[in-house]
Amino acid sequence: MAEQPMLKFVSVERGMPEKRLPDLRRTDFKEIYAEYADAKAKEQSSRCSQCGVPYCQTHCPLHNNIPDWLRLTAEGRLQEAYEISQATNTFPEICGRICPQDRLCEGNCVIEQSGHGTVTIGSVEKYITDTAWEQGWVQPIKPRQERSESVGIIGAGPGGLAAADVLRRAGVQVTIYDRYDRAGGLLTYGIPGFKLEKDVVMRRNDQLAEGGVNFELNCDVDADIFQTIRAEHDAVIIATGVYKTREIQAPGVGGLGVERAIDFLTASNRKSFGDAVPEFDSGRFNAKGKRVVVIGGGDTAMDCVRTSIRQGAESVKCLYRRDRANMPGSQREVANAEEEGVVFEWLSAPKGIVGDPVTGVMVQKMRLGAPDVTGRQAPEVIEGADYVEDADLVIMALGFEAEDLPTLWDTPELPVNRWGTIKADYITGATEMDGIYAVGDIVRGASLVVWAIKDGRDCAAAILEKFGAGSQVLAAE
């Protein structure tokens, strides 16, 4: 009788891929986790309990068939595992790297709830697709037949790229317009290489281009260009993301040495590509030898503190107004940052900036009071507990808001809510304007890459239905 390949969580302990030592990884921008060996991937996959109601799948925005591809991996049927994985996810190797699995699939794993330690779903997902690329299982995009309809997509981030992939596989003519010189949006210029090495993103961009997706890069869409795009295409998908930085109203915020997180991260990523980056070379976006203070508690703040470490900062501190348990960023990222030398100042909020150029941050100490409208305890100022945190570089990582697209594009009929994000159907992405769709953060507000991928795929499916193409969409090959 053949050995049962699954349910080994009782006898096999949870094992993540090995992490590079902090002293090594803080000197470069390479990914910090090693790859699983084949035997290790099988072993960890075999821990899955194959439960009747897979909460991992339920809590994945894409509803990936996680138990199925874990079982196939445990059985050594890796190509089949890849085919199941990519059937619901356009970029599984990217999600395997950057999804906050501790808040999604792994955080809801049944065996995690029973105290045995979650299955390492994200690491296995990454391993499956990286192996698929190495083995040539990832096939070029080859539509069975070309269609006459065309779709213009504004924004080459994960939502726009996912929509383009689905539409192009169905034979639709697709053009993506993006303000940057490389496609990928935050995957390319926002997320640092130690979380997502850039060749992983460029490989997908190349696959789309070779499959017939047309990229119009260095194209900053204005009112005239938007009208041209509308006229040239049968449908338009707005996938611009949200890039306007939230500001704090405090004395000295506009001074020298106070920078926006997106500018700091973009400069660092451009430098990693080998681009000429005058603002980095001048020292403006270079943390080397500086006392860095990052303000914020989300994943962008974690990217900034860990980037500063790798640039050679003298010290790096992160100010967050709530405590560790209430921060929005991934707890894994916090742990990684601490290992690398970042100091977190919990229950601390900026009151103002000292000096121009900056020499410090005036900090207010906080305590948690009654819950706010979100149910989290609201921070309250502790009177008389202010102090100055020395700093040569202050990075604002307080989140992002939508640009004023109706004004920028001279399209007042574009429906937006009071936060400036576009009003669109959450499934189809359709707006009140005929033929205009919107997906990702420009609808949801700042959110996760996996949600943008889901939105892009769902929107593409709706457009194909409108074109009479049926639902040929969800097979990614």
Explain the layout of strands and helices.
Blueprint: H1 22-25, H2 38-45, H3 55-58, H4 66-74, H5 78-88, H6 92-98, H7 110-113, H8 121-135, E1 150-154, H9 158-169, E2 173-177, H10 186-189, H11 198-210, E3 214-216, H12 223-232, E4 235-238, E5 244-245, E6 258-260, H13 261-273, H14 278-281, E7 291-295, H15 299-310, E8 315-319, H16 331-339, E9 343-345, E10 348-354, E11 360-371, E12 377-381, E13 387-390, E14 393-396, E15 400-401, H17 405-408, E16 436-438, H18 441-444, H19 449-466
Parallel strand pairs: 1-2, 1-4, 2-3, 4-16, 6-14, 7-8, 7-14, 8-9
Antiparallel strand pairs: 5-15, 10-11, 11-12, 11-13
Could you describe the 3D structure shown?
With 477 residues, this protein is of the alpha/beta class. It folds into three domains: 22-135, Fumarate Reductase Iron-sulfur Protein, Chain B, domain 2; 150-242 and 402-466, 3-Layer(bba) Sandwich (FAD/NAD(P)-binding domain); 245-399, FAD/NAD(P)-binding domain. Helices cover 35% and strands 15% of the residues. It has 19 helices and 16 strands. The chain has helices at residues 22-25, 38-45, 55-58, 66-74, 78-88, 92-98, 110-113, 121-135, 158-169, 186-189, 198-210, 223-232, 261-273, 278-281, 299-310, 331-339, 405-408, 441-444, 449-466; strands at 150-154, 173-177, 214-216, 235-238, 244-245, 258-260, 291-295, 315-319, 343-345, 348-354, 360-371, 377-381, 387-390, 393-396, 400-401, 436-438. Strands 3-2-1-4-16 form a five-stranded parallel sheet, with helices on both faces. Strand 10 (348-354) and strand 11 form a beta hairpin. Helix 15 packs parallel to helix 16. The longest helix is centred in the last third of the chain and has 18 residues, at 449-466. The radius of gyration is 23 Å and the shape is globular.
